[in-house]
Amino acid sequence: MDLLPPLTALRAFEAAARHESFAQAAAELHVTPAAVSHQVKALEAFVGVVLFHRRARGLTITEAGRAAQPLLRDGLERFREGVARMRSAAEQRRLTISANTSFASMWLISRLENFRTRHPDIDILLSATDNLADLHGGEADIGIRYGRGYYAELHSDRIVGLREFPVCSPALLEGDFPLLTPDDLRHHNLLHVAWYDETDVWPTWNVWLKAAGVEGVDANSGLRFNDYLVAVKAATEGLGVALGSDFLVRDDIAAGRLVCPFELGVGAPDSFAYYLVVPPDRLENPRIAAFRAWLLEETAAYREPRLV
After folding, report:
1. CATH placement of domain 7-91
2. Ordered per-residue pLDDT tens for the chain, 308 residues
3. What ranges do the domains of the chain cover?
4. How high is the pLDDT of residue 1?
5. How would you write 251-288 as a 3-class SS string?
6. Could you give the CA distance from residue 49 to residue 5 in angstroms, rounded to a whole number?
7. Most C-beta atoms within 10 A of its C-beta, which of 125, 137, 172, 195?
8. pLDDT at 32
9. What is the largest CA-CA distance in the chain?
10. CATH 3.40.190.10: does it fit domain 163-267?
11. Strand pairing class (266-267; 94-99)
């Protein structure tokens, strides 16, 4: 089988032949005229024939070039069609999930292989972001959001509500001020997620201390972080005590990175929970239906009143 010249050389020749101009071909291909001229010269060397007459007033395509140009034009168009079909096949396998960063990092990632084992024909693209993807606009196939579950023109499934309780490094149970009772919190830093303190969507230290009947502990003191993941990391490093969700920190507790020194937990207000959201007209999509069924099955145990 005869070797083919580089595709870049063929594209440069086809564009230059169509325009009879290196400059216009360069503008179309987003390269310099010199680059187009270089590719055409390389193609001429490869085939052993002159394809353009270079004159002061511009280019004139030769008979050899004119005979080849329609075939190359059609061939390049077939290449484009073939690549488009490849992409279409890949897109038919892909499922794009937009998930809250805490949910994605602390729960979903470690379990995605379970889904892949069950559905090896589905490729996952996980977008971990706290920004809301435009599901109707195609930015993602599925969204996982934290809120009340009311999302305009979207079907929502409640995944799990959150229950918050103090968590800390096992090291804080020892030392000069061991954390044995809620009153001992006065000797330790309280770790806050700053933006939660300004809303009613997440239990705060003020809410937990009141529920525990603890007095004399400043609910607003301590360290603040703008991200839940960072606050939990600070707790594992022994910087203080964070409020952790039974759903999100269960793996850290099972691994011994965190402990729960007190039994009392407080729930998120009203109907706040994690929800899986999908445009209603896409519920029957096989990839979406498979992930939705798997996620609801995986999280069924977490919908029990208490986990730890």
Report:
1. 1.10.10.10
2. 467 788 888 889 889 889 888 889 999 989 898 999 999 999 989 998 999 988 877 788 999 989 888 888 888 888 777 776 766 655 567 899 999 888 998 899 989 999 999 999 899 999 988 888 888 888 899 999 888 778 888 999 998 887 888 999 999 998 888 988 888 999 999 999 876 444 555 668 888 888 888 888 888 889 998 888 899 999 999 999 998 887 888 889 899 999 988 877 665 555 678 899 999 998 999 999 999 999 999 988 776 544 44
3. 7-91, 93-161+271-303, 163-267
4. 41
5. HHHHCCCCECCCCCCEECCCCCEEEEEECHHHCCCHHH
6. 14
7. 172
8. 92
9. 94
10. yes
11. unpaired
Evaluate whether the domain defined by 93-161+271-303 bears CATH number 3.40.50.720: no
Quote the CA–CA distance of 215 and 289 in Å, as a whole number: 49
Phi-psi region of 252 (alpha: psi -120 to 50; beta: other; left: phi over 0): alpha
- Residue 252 contacts residue 272 (beta carbons within 8 Å): no
- Would you give the DSSP letter of residue 91? H
Residues across the chain: 308
Q: Is 208 exposed, middle or buried (0-12, 13-18, 19+ CB in 10 A)?
A: buried
Residue type, 151: Y
Give residues with Cβ within 8 angstroms of 227, minimum separation 6: 101, 193
The answer to whether the 93-161+271-303 and 163-267 domains have the same CATH topology is: yes
Which residues, 6+ apart, have CB-to-CB distance to 270 below 8 Å?
A: 148
